[in-house]
Design brief:
InterPro entries: Cyt_c-like_dom (IPR009056), Cyt_c-like_dom_sf (IPR036909), Cyt_c_1A/1B (IPR002327)
CATH superfamily: Cytochrome c-like domain
CATH class: Mainly Alpha
Number of helices: 6
GO molecular function, one term: electron transfer activity
Order of helices and strands: HHHHHH
Largest sheet: none
Protein name: C-type cytochrome
Strand content: under 5%
Keywords: Electron transport, Heme, Iron, Metal-binding, Signal, Transport
CATH architecture: Orthogonal Bundle
Organism: Pseudomonas putida (Arthrobacter siderocapsulatus)
């Protein structure tokens, strides 16, 4: 009985953590208008439109979610991103936006990170909604 209770508790804890990780970047719990304002920091280098034209110094972010990291045609990515084999999921984007150099130490992106969790969530919400 004790062993069964431990298994149930362990699985329940995993489900709670999984649910909470979705809250951190979930589209239902965000403010795309604030995300648009915060995105202005990103727009200095990045574009985010359907033309596919890249920004001044960085790739176009339109349709970013679900894309392979470092895979946008016409942009020369660092080998750290190009060879990562990763995919831009909401959770991965959240970690990257928080501290880009911790995720990809050799990235050329000159940005120290967006430390505010709500601002990250809102930027991701804005990008997701503007890509639909």
């Amino acid at each position: 009985m004790k062993q069964a209770l431990q298994v149930v508790t362990r699985h329940f804890g995993s489900l709670v953590l999984l649910a909470l990780s979705g809250v951190a970047v979930g589209a239902d719990n965000c403010d795309p208008e604030n995300g648009k304002k915060v995105y202005q920091i990103c727009s200095v280098c990045h574009s985010n439109d359907t033309t596919g034209v890249h920004g001044a110094a960085a790739p176009n972010l339109h349709g970013l979610e679900g894309r392979k990291v470092g895979s946008v045609p016409g942009f020369k990515f660092s080998s750290a991103l190009r060879d990562s084999g990763d995919t831009w999921t909401p959770q991965h984007l959240d970690k990257f936006l928080e501290n880009p150099m911790a995720v990809y130490p050799l990235t050329r992106m000159a940005f120290s990170g967006l430390k505010n969790e709500k601002d990250r969530r809102d930027v991701l919400c804005f990008l997701s909604k503007s890509s639909n």
